[in-house]
Structure formats: structure tokens, C-alpha cells
What does this fold into?
Amino acid sequence: MCPKQNRYDKDAGRGRIRTPMAQILLFALRCLLGGIVVAALFYLAYALVFSNHRERALKAENEYLQGRYEELLARSQLVDDVLDYLEVRDNAIYHNIFNVDPPSAEGLLGTETETEINRFYTATETELIASSNQALGEMTRTAAQIDRQIRAINDRLADPSFNTGNFPSTIPLQDFSIAHTGATTGKKMNPFFKTLSYHNGIDLMAPYGTEVHATGGGLVVEVLRQGKGLGNMVTIDHGDGLCTTYAHLSEVYVAIGQKVSRGKVIGKVGNSGASFSTALHYEVRKDARAVDPVNYFFASLSPATYSDMLILANTTGQSLD
It folds into this structure.
């Protein structure tokens, strides 16, 4: 309790007297120290309760952002890998279908660096003429190469043995949604044995009884009705070393030796044989070698849809058979 500054001394019989200055200063110092202690206690409480809560929130937000960054980085790497993969697949398509390398405009577009561009502005007239002649020569050679490739493709298309109607270039299921794309060719996890094994085709998930269409014209060379393996299946020879197989069918509508055209209903989707779920197992073979069927869906897919389907098919790690 703070002392009064003025008091009355009854014993001495005197009037008011003043409090010593030292006592006043001591009292002020005590009040100041008390205020500092109270302020320190409030700050400590705030730091322990509110600041810790804020720090935890910031830490959680930082961890979330770090996770998102790593996820976006992984997606970016996936996109780069897919672009490289698309280039490889594009080359494979041209080799398998047209027996040539795909046309490239890289030589025509050029790959000048910033230094080379700056050099262009500081070059003399003689240097510009020499550089232009060199660039013109490279463009002429590139144009000649592309011209040879285009003529090779035209010759391939004009070859009587290359029947565009027989070429398997469509998806065997009408109104197919790419969201129902399963695993394609490559090493996949077997759903029954949980081991990695080579998958020779692509799984196209569809309701039981969905009609299955021939992806190109050809001759039916194999029809099997069995309760194991690929179950009920049909194989069509399209000529030029290309064959397609349709497996796990619930019903088969064609016979060996029968000629079919593209779009012909040859059976219905089922889960016959060793199938984990109702789906069509579809294979494309070139010269008896299994190839990725997605590469042969170009007549049914836009470039953007093709890219999406390719990603789904190749990132699915488990097959259905």
C-alpha cells in the first residue's frame, strides 16, 4: 500500500510534515519494478500460448507448402519424362507403320543461342553473307531429307500390300472413356500372384456385355473358348505382320477363317479366364512382337487425349490378368 505523502504527528503536537525524498524514490522504484514484472508475466503468457500456436500454424503451413513443392516438382519431372516418351513413341509409330524416321523441322527452325543472335547484329556484311549461305545450305539439306521421308510415306501408302482399311487404328470399344484405361504393355503386378510379370496388351475396362469391335479389317485366325488364361479370345490377322487379339470375352460372334471389316462386332466384354475384373484385354502384335496398343489408337483419339491415355496406361502398375 502506498504511504501518504503528508501526515499529522499527534505526539509531537506539530502540524503536517513532508515524506523524505528517498522514501518517495523507493516507492516509485517498487512500482516500476512491479509493472515490469507484470508486463513480463503477460509477455511470457502470450509467448507460451499465442506465439506457440502461431508458430505451429506457420510450421504446418510450411510443411504443406514443402510437400506441394515436392509434388509439383515430381509432376514436372513426369511431364518431361512423358514428353521424351512421346517422342520415342512417335518415332516407333513411324518406324512400325511407314518404315521411316519421322519428319523433323529442327534444322529449319534452328537452335540459335542468345550469343549467336547478338553476333548477328555485330557481324560485317561479308560475315552475314557467309553465314546466310551456310544456313541456306543446311536448310536445303534438311528440306531434302524431309522430302525423302514424305515420299517414302506416300510410297508406303500407295503400296497395294498396305491396306488402310485393314490397319488396326481404332479403339475396340465404342464411346470408350479414357478414365477406364488400365495397364498397358510392360512389367506389371499380377493381381493374383502379386508378382511382376510381362503384360502383352492393354486393359480396357467396360461393363459386362459391352460390344467389342474389330479395330481393322482382316482374317480371323484364332478363336478360343476356355476357362483359363485369356479366356474366350479372338485373334485377327490384318496383314503386313500385324495381328490383334481380343480376350476375356463373354461371347464370341466370329469363327476361324471368317473375314471381318473394321467396326465388325466380334464379341462382348466379359471376365472369362484368369481375369481380375470385367474388362477387355486387347493386344497388337507387329511381326509377332507385342507393341503398345495405345500407339495404334490415333484414328480414335485427339493428340491431347492420346497424351492423357498414354500417361494413364503407363502409370498403372497392376494389370487385370
Q: What stands out?
A: The helical segments are 21-98, 106-109, 114-122, 125-158, 303-315. The chain has three domains: 1-82, 106-158, 178-315. Residues 1-82 form one domain. The first helix runs from residue 21 to 98.
